[in-house]
Specification:
The chain is α/β, with parallel strands linked by helices. The protein contains 16 helices and ten strands. It is elongated.
């Protein structure tokens, strides 16, 4: 395993080598302090440019690069606002398209107002926005999804500068979990309204989302969504609080040369159509799934294992986007980026929510006290007995009943061997070579 997600330090992003040139170009426009936290946020934006395309996941299902959702978390002075400049740069074509659509809608509204009460109202034009405003209501969101489905099954992309804006798009906080899960799983909206003014329709929700929020707002917003699948589906990118250096971060200038290079990559996304199987990506995803199971066994953490399933899917979708950006060619650097994205997502989740996932209230544990899953075998000597593991489990707040099963899993996976004569467990050379 390349990364240790139990530490408070974020996993270091790999070098941006061959196949990640688009990411390198985009990061050239932001200050160094937010480059790594912004990388996971780029893929929902880029993925929204791909339509009419499906990729086969290792479980043999076909998935589109929609349902990609990422939440950037940093303090109010953490430079989250730089994401908005990248969004506008990547979505210039979306803005141009939506300006034309908006003119149609405004002209229709003018005609409706000028018609008398007894006169026949003009029919609302078929308009579909690729980049709707962040302050979108739930009926408008569903109506736009219906139009996008009818006009080519495109994905709408929404950027929310504050996490609370998701309540309005979902129709209230109680509906957040239902709507976000439907978006991630590419399910139908199932909207049935009782009034003529409401929006009734059942479109497939093809949407990508990016959200920005502070740690406090994030923990407050998701505190009731940690165990229903919503939290696991969202990719989190956490930027911890840094020291006071007194320097104003420098941003890029977004020159014509930058836009020219960027547009070459966007063209590859817009023109990609069909069904594809990326075998190296699927092989890597299978490998990462095994690693997630290993980490969960070493930490005896079922919740971590469950969370990892969707982190793998989100990382895999990002790999699909990188593959298209690189002229449908796989490279080692793309694989390294996908691996980092998976670990960084899980690390961010644990840094933000580890105490809440353990059943503690949001305000009981300080930021410095939160931690990710602990590899218990690393905290034991080379040779140990069952009582030593029991003591370690007790110190970490785990029950004693799971001790024997954890030892069984370690023996089964070849991490330790057991001596009947001494009753002691010993770490294997294979395990020591990995750790």
């Amino acid at each position: 395993m390349r990364y240790d997600i139990s530490k408070q330090t974020a996993p270091s992003m790999p070098r941006l080598g061959k196949g990640t040139e688009c990411i390198k170009i985009l990061l050239s426009q932001v200050s160094k302090d937010v480059r790594e936290p912004l990388v996971p946020m780029l893929f929902p934006i880029l993925g929204a440019h791909i339509s009419g395309t499906e990729f086969q996941y290792p479980d043999l299902t076909w998935k589109e690069p929609c349902g990609m959702m990422a939440n950037l978390v940093a303090e109010s002075g953490g430079n989250k606002g730089q994401l908005s400049y990248l969004v506008e740069a990547i979505c210039r074509d979306f803005r141009l398209h939506d300006e034309t659509e908006l003119k149609k809608l405004v002209e229709w509204q003018k005609q409706v107002k000028t018609k008398g009460a007894n006169k026949e109202k003009p029919v609302r034009p078929d308009v579909a926005f690729w980049f709707p405003p962040s302050d979108v209501t739930n009926p408008a969101f569903i109506q736009n999804a219906m139009a996008l489905e009818a006009l080519g099954e495109r994905t709408q992309y929404i950027n929310m500068p504050e996490v609370e804006m998701a309540d309005r798009m979902c129709g209230g906080h109680r509906q957040v979990t239902q709507v976000l899960r439907n978006i991630y799983d590419r399910q139908r909206a199932g909207a049935l309204r009782a009034t003529a003014d409401g929006v009734t329709g059942n479109p497939i929700l093809r949407a990508n989302l990016t959200i920005s929020s502070t740690p406090f707002a994030t923990r407050t917003f998701y505190r009731n969504e940690l165990f229903n699948g919503t939290f696991a589906r969202m990719v989190f990118s956490y930027k911890p609080r840094k020291g006071r250096d007194g320097r104003i971060p420098r941003q890029g200038k977004y020159t014509d040369e930058f836009y020219q290079k960027l547009d070459e990559f966007l063209l590859r996304l817009n023109t990609c159509k069909g069904r594809f199987i990326i075998k190296p990506l699927n092989k890597l995803t299978d490998k990462l799934a095994e690693e997630m199971a290993t980490i969960a066994d070493l930490a005896d953490d079922d919740l971590l294992f469950e969370i990892s399933h969707r982190s793998l899917v989100s990382g895999w979708k990002a790999g699909c986007v990188l593959w298209v950006l690189n002229n449908q060619t796989w490279t080692k650097s793309i694989g390294e980026m996908v691996e980092w994205l998976v670990y960084h997502d899980i690390w961010s989740k644990m840094q933000l929510f580890a105490d809440m996932l353990g059943g503690k209230e949001a305000d009981q544990v300080s930021e410095a006290q939160r931690h990710g899953p602990k590899n218990m075998l690393d905290n034991l000597p080379g040779t140990f007995n069952e009582a030593q593991l029991e003591a370690l489990r007790t110190s970490l707040g785990k029950n004693l009943e799971g001790t024997k099963n954890q030892l069984y899993q370690w023996v089964f996976r070849g991490f330790v061997t057991y001596s009947e004569q001494t009753g002691l467990y010993s770490k294997t050379e294979a395990y020591l070579g990995k750790s």
